[in-house]
Amino acid sequence: MLDKLSSRVTEAEDRIGTAEGQLVDLNSRVVNHLGTRAFYRAPDNRGAHRADRALGPRPPADQRPRPVLIRLLKCQDRDKILRIAAQRSRENKGPIKYDGKPVLFFPDLSASLVKRRKEYDRVKTELRSKDIPFALLHPATLRITLPDGRRRFFQTPKEVAAFLRGTPAGT
């Protein structure tokens, strides 16, 4: 019973995209400025609840900066931002740039979902080495595009490994 409740809470967190941990305030002008430069207009000020840097020491100038977590009031805003960022990245054939540096957008995922997605790392490396196009879809489904254009979907890394070996899963 407790496992079932825990599973439902985790599933709800994945859908909602809750923020985790306590964060330090970041000036919201950065969010508006980034919105104007990356999306060609400033986001609605009522949409962002707060913007914070991830906890941790300030990295040296030659390393990547700390992530910025933006907590939005509506999940629709989050979905719209992620959709626009993906669209702009495709149009520009690369990530959105801010002062000449790439800015990447990711949804907040629960620890259990991150763990499930990380389980695919080994088979993703094998797929890359064989030049097989793939995508890791939400929540944790791997899609492989075959040379003839057909797509195969896998729910576990074991299924992918079995497919790559040419044996049916479960044997």
TrEMBL record:
Coiled coil region boundaries: 2-29
UniProt keyword terms in alphabetical order: Coiled coil
Highest taxon of source: Eukaryota
InterPro entries: L1_C, Transposase_22
Xref: PANTHER family: L1 TRANSPOSABLE ELEMENT-RELATED
Protein name: L1 transposable element RRM domain-containing protein
Lineage: Eukaryota, Metazoa, Chordata, Craniata, Vertebrata
